[in-house]
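Thread title: Can someone regenerate the structure for this chain?

I was given the following input by a collaborator and told the matching structure tokens would be attached. They weren't. Posting the sequence so someone can regenerate them.
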Amino acid sequence: MKELASDIIIASSPREVWEVLTDFDSYRDWNPFIRSVEGLPAEGETLTVSIQPPGSRSMTFRPVVLKAEATSEFRWKGKLLVRGLFDGEHYFILRENEDRSTTFIQGEIFSGILTALFSGILEKTERGFGLMNEALRSECER
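Best answer:
Regenerated them for you:
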């Protein structure tokens, strides 16, 4: 098991951040890491997600939404081929700060018997989290 996480403070309310985060149609305009998402941000829904870690080719997978609590948490879980080989539980957590800004946390918990073999792509994925977080902040604060 391996967990990656990246956080950033955004000078916008959790509601404003949530609106940008769940406006999947606009991802192609601002998001350098998650290039597209199709589907609904609702528990039990299956999404089609395309990511492109820095320096890598794009990958598309079909995760299931585990949690979609407006303004606080969005979480999905995907797998490579069959469950238990290489699974990823991706999460976005939004926490309101005293000054009404938002601490945005993006992370993923990787598990499965092939996790150790994917260390190179995991490093690029972590860089992708940082790039997306910066782009999300710019999009929310403009």
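The mean pLDDT is 92.
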